[in-house]
UniProtKB/TrEMBL annotation:
One of its GO terms (molecular function) is S-methyl-5-thioribose kinase activity. Belongs to the methylthioribose kinase family. This is S-methyl-5-thioribose kinase. Pfam families: APH. It comes from the Bacteria. PANTHER family: METHYLTHIORIBOSE KINASE. It comes from Shinella granuli.
Length: 423
């Protein structure tokens, strides 16, 4: 499409540089001098533009050779755009309609031009605003089950799965970000960490001295790095989901890697628990967001139950890979053996999922990359109690995950924490 030498786009150069592309002419408008371009990227890594013309609009997402959040001192390879493109194409096949349509991928320029989702908003933003989206629990539960089951040895032909494993194994630098930022940095005084200070200092010191927690965090990191079960989205939080009341779309899989089935589910559910604890920082008066709180906990239950039911459905209908073969179970007249194996697999996903959720909560409050749920609570004296409650839940999930048996039990813990008066 363009020259092979990477150059970052700008609002000024974009029409000229992309205006010759036939696909974009058809989607946006034939005369690129009439395109209007707005830079809207507010994420940690990339440039994102909305380009509008007389025929329509598109999103142009371009990787930069460094971490945007930190600057050029932290180089990051452009190839993350390649992994995002390949992850999007696989997710589109595995759960059609749930990711944006891709119009153009240019590997040398590290850019993906894709469908402009409108009037969608980022789910995290909608939850901060107190919006109750009716579909997300079900849509996201289905998405997780379909993409994670169909990307694994439960479903794929082994040659295809191993080729994919090799392809995504090169997403080293983005895995390295997760390995450090999620699993290690929060638990010591890493240079880029920050937290609400001085309010959180005592609990942060306790968590960093907590032997059981640190061991669990490293066991979870071990799972992350060694359990290459399926193609994970890799960064599935509420900032990676766009919504309307009628539609849910998942975006931004540049962290895609082969990892545990439980990883995406845990990261996602953690972000609903964080949203829950942040509501006190956003409500107009105490209790004004009680309906929202109940909605968030119900959504977590819907998401997990939908995931579990769809995973079980796919297990019974699409288990064509090398694992738990029907030839050993159903075809030998022993369908109960397949059900027994399914229960064991789901139970393992459950216990890992809780651990990943706990660690995700901690890193969003103690590490480099915080989330807007808490960050938009301007008054630190109001923000700190919200964060403290979330940190306590995170510790409970990570350390006690082998002994937690239901979301009902967690709901009780969450609601009890919410009522705690903190000095
Ligand atoms: C340096 S990147 C920090 C975080 O932003 C991304 O969205 C991922 O969540 C990553 O951990
Ligand atoms: Mg992202």
């Amino acid at each position: 499409m363009e020259s092979q030498v990477f150059a970052a786009l700008s609002v000024e150069t974009l029409p000229d540089r992309l205006g010759g592309n036939a696909v974009l002419k058809a989607k946006i408008g034939a005369d690129s001098s009439h395109w209007s371009v707005k830079e809207v990227g507010d994420g940690n890594l990339n440039l994102v533009f909305i380009v509008t013309g007389d025929r329509g609009a598109a999103i142009v997402k371009q990787a930069l050779p460094y971490v945007r959040l930190v600057g050029e001192s932290w180089p990051l390879p452009l190839k993350r755009s390649f992994f995002e493109y390949h992850a999007l194409t696989r997710q589109a096949a595995r759960d059609p309609g749930m990711v944006p349509e891709i119009y153009v991928f240019d590997e040398a320029q590290a850019l993906i031009v894709m469908e402009y989702l409108t009037p969608h908003v980022i789910l995290r933003r909608a939850l901060i605003d107190g919006r109750e989206l009716p579909r997300i629990g079900r849509d996201l539960g289905l998405f997780a089950a379909r993409t994670l089951f169909r990307g694994s040895d439960l479903s794929m032909a082994t040659r295809e799965k191993k080729a994919d494993l090799a392809l995504f194994a090169d997403n080293v630098e983005l895995c390295d970000i997760t390995e450090n930022l999620v699993f290690s940095d929060p638990y010591f005084e890493a240079a880029l960490n920050r937290h609400t200070t001085p309010q959180l200092d005592p609990i942060v010191a306790d968590l960093r001295a907590d032997r059981d927690l640190k061991v669990e965090a490293q066991r979870l990191k071990h799972l992350f790095s060694a359990k290459a079960e399926t193609l994970c989205h890799g960064d599935l939080h509420t900032g990676s989901v766009m919504v309307t009341d009628d539609e849910t779309r998942v975006i931004d899989p540049e962290f895609a890697f082969y990892g545990p089935i439980s990883f995406d589910v845990g990261m996602l559910i953690a972000n609903f628990w964080m949203s829950y604890f942040s509501q006190a920082g956003h409500e107009a008066a105490p209790g004004a967001r009680d309906g929202m709180r109940a909605y968030l906990l119900d959504t977590i239950e819907t998401l997990w139950e939908t995931f579990r039911a769809e995973f079980a459905h796919l297990w019974r209908t699409e288990r064509k890979g090398i694992l738990y073969q029907a030839s050993l179970f159903e075809d030998r007249g022993d369908p109960l053996a397949a059900e027994q194996a399914l229960a064991i697999v789901i139970d393992e996903i459950w216990r890992e999922m809780l651990g990943f959720a706990g660690i995700e909560i901690h890193r969003r409050i103690l590490g480099l990359a915080h989330n807007a749920d808490f960050e938009t609570i301007a008054d630190p004296d109001r923000r700190a109690p919200c964060e403290t409650k979330a940190l306590k839940l995170g510790r409970h999930l990570a350390v006690n995950r082998q002994r937690i048996h239901s979301l009902r039990d967690i709901r009780e813990t969450v609601e009890r924490l919410e009522k705690e008066i903190l000095a």
